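Appendix B. Extra example for self-study. Work through it before the problem class; the solution is given directly after the inputs so you can check yourself.
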Amino acid sequence: MKLGIKKGLNLHLVGAVEASDIVQVEALQCAVVPDDFHGFQPKVLVREGDEVEAGTALMSDKSYPQMQLTSPVSGKVKAVVRGERRKVLRVVVSNDGKHTSRSFDTKQPLLELLGASGLLAQVRRRPYDVVVRPDVRPRDIFVTALDTAPLSAGMYLPEDGAKALAEAVKALQTLTDGKVYLSHGADWALGDVPGAEMVEVSGPHPAGNVGVQIANIAPVNKGETVWTMDVTTLWRIGVLLLTGKVDYSTVVAVTGPEVNAPALVKTTVGCDIKAVLAGRLPNVDHHVRIISGNVLTGVAVSEADGYLQAPYRQVTVIAEGDDKVEFMGWASVSPAKMSAHKALPFSWLRKLFAPDARLNGGRRAMIFYGEYDRVLPMDIVSEYLLKAIISRNIDDMEALGIYEVAPEDFALCEYIDTSKLPLQQIVRDGLDYLRKELE
Amino acid sequence: MKSLHKFLQRVKPHFQPGGKLSALGSVYEGFESFLFTPATTSARRGAVHVHDSHDSKRAMIIVVLALLPCFLFGMYNTGYQHWKAAGAVEFPFWELMGYGFLAVLLRVVLTYVVGLGIEFIAAQIKKEEIQEGFLVTGLLIPMICPIETPLWMLAVATAFAVIFAKEVFGGTGYNIFNVALVARAFLFFAYPAAMSGDKVFVASGTVCGLGAGADAVTCATPLGAVATGVPVSDLSAWDAFVGLIPGSFGETSVICILIGAAVLLLSGIGSWRIMLSAVVGTLVMGWIAHTFATDLYPGSMLSPVDHLLYGGLAFAIVFMATDPVTACHTPTGKLIYGFLIGVVAVLIRVYNNGYPEGAMLAVLLLNAFASLIDFCVVRGNIARRRARLTSKS
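Solution. Structure tokens for the complete assembly:
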């Protein structure tokens, strides 16, 4: 099956990874951040000083205790960091370098195995774009192997990954009455995975977003649930089933205009940013923003106390921009200004841009309609859905397709928005509100 | 520029809450963000980290740029009509421009002072940033009014429009009706004697010593003449295309309107759907009216193209109908909305002799219906989704 996405936008940024060499980086410490698993209500199972192996449970979900978050490395629990009202911010494990892993009994029921290994929490569900509920059987399972986000270096899989993928698909088929869809780009090298419905996706970002793929293959209707994951999670499930152990290694693209030499780094999930970026940050006299993830959906982290956060495959560093003084920037037609609007007539002269984190304008009401539709390849009347969300009108939200969307689908809309509205946050708040009201 | 920036930063505390001048906080913020790109950066989580360089200030300024050709021509034409009415045979370019400039200057300054003043106060009350929508509205209002509109009426109409058509709805982006047109409609219905007829469209008297000495000139607009059954023999379609005809200050020249339309379309700010469908609507309705022309309705004698050349319809199609806030928001809705503006404008012009011009009322009427049109279009999306659900079950 082929799926061509037409609408969308590729952002061309400075700092893409060019060399294919992979540098090995040993984590000093790794963190598990519960916020990365939206909908997961953490109950901490370990105390500072406890010895853990890779795969040892650190936290469990309050509603479904069989769903756990596990340690990516072996070592000692260094800290359980809590924020306001004792909210768990992260559990940090220092790496002892021994690389011991907990062995799981692969004979146990699949959901229990996935839950205990920490991999079930890596799977998300639509509607709501949150962690799955083990007691709800999904209609279909969608796996994306395509990452079209800015500066992405794709999703890394080992050359012999096909066997693990086939094993995982075979297992996942028992969890759904529908299909397991595996969507990939034109450069997919692992061939057809037995049992999976292969979909070759082409087009600009957000073609790689699993939500966009679902909307164009088999949209989610009211009352239905589908599961989504990236291909790395699928591969980890396969490895778990084959070996009984969770492989927490990951390949991270260190990218961005403020990185010395963009490169691929092989490290562990949740690795400290300091180790990932060692020697790669140039000495500059302006502020920089380190993003775990891409510039559209990533999380800004600090260099001193930041960690690689889900989905653990990219770090982008851009200028912060809050220390720049720009006289009448709104009147500038400099070709260095990145824009998808024709109102900046010379932006097409540049091939690559180095934008900073400024909003480039003030927050306004929705004024210019039709902008979002240019970059949202889904059958959604986006402005009306957003207004229904803002006004907390559940009937309209349902009618306009809130069950089909996730915040990341609106990332490009937020980028292109003249009114600089926080669209991803609006969608996230709407989904949370709906879930609270209906579940 | 660095010293200016440093100065602004130094005085900033005075304008912040608790400062001596905190009552002028919005004004300060407005000027600061006008002069220097705000340093506000993206949220650290749950938001994009980079934003497009386009913003609403740039968009509004592009609309102002698109209006400039019409504005400059309006200055010339004001002088030209004045000289012509005085019976002059020579038309000194710079004197004409100077006369037109001085005639309109006070009106532009007045609408900006009144409108922006209200905006500043509203922003301060709501503790919000000043929105730049009025940059366009403030220029539009003098352009769509006759040059002889008394200043106090202009001020009252601007205040009425900004307060009751915009601020009470929540400000720029929330209004239902086009603010500039509401000002025009307010003048039209509140002071009909001063706003229509044949005495207001040509400037009279002298301004700062400039002028050809024409006083209280009586000169109807072509559409006004048509509506009253007086033939307009001395005006050609070419004059109307160029714009050397009596009319509201900025809306006579179709050439300049086309330049403005090109700017709006090339910059992607004006909707081609609305412009195109409105022109089609005008031509279709104009053709129907012209095909069944009767003496009872003198307007029906106008050819379809004449409807676009005379009066304010072309200007309304390019600059009023395309107002992104008050127009339809869906692509299909825009086509219907534009088409109906063309149709209704011609209907009013032709079949209602009381109103020689229908563009203003057509746009305002369709502003009122824009939400309904969109509602029907969005229903289509909802119905598709529901059909998917019911076909499954």
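Self-check: The radius of gyration of chain B is 23 Å. If your reasoning did not lead you there, revisit section 3.
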